[in-house]
Amino acid sequence: MPGLTFREAFPWCGAVGYVMNLRLRIAALLFLLCLVASPFAAAATSLVPSTDPQAAAGRQGKGATRLHILSTPPLGERWFGISLADERTGFYRSAIVQTEEGYEIAGSGSVKMLVLGFSRQASSRETYRVNRDLSLKSFDVEQTIDGSPMRLTGKATAAGVTVRIESAGSQREKVLKSKGPVYPPAVLNLLPLTRGVAPGKKYRIPMLDVEEVKIKEVTITALGQETLPGGTEAIHFRNDLYPFVDNDVWVDLAGNTVRESVRDGLIVTSAEDGAVTRQFILDAAIAKRDLILDFSLIRVDRPIARPFELKKLALEMVGIPETVPLLSDGRQTAVRLEGGKVLFTVDNSANAAAAGGGGAGSPVEGKDLEPTDRILSGNDEIAAAKNEILGGEKDPLKAVQTLTRWIAANIGESVTDSHTSLEVLRNRKGNCQSHARLYTALARAAGIPTRFVSGIVYVDGKGFLYHSWAESYAGRWLAVDPTFGQVPADATHVKLAEGDSPGEMAAIAGMVGRVQGKIVEEKY
Question: What global pTM score does this model have?
Answer without folding.
Answer: 0.71
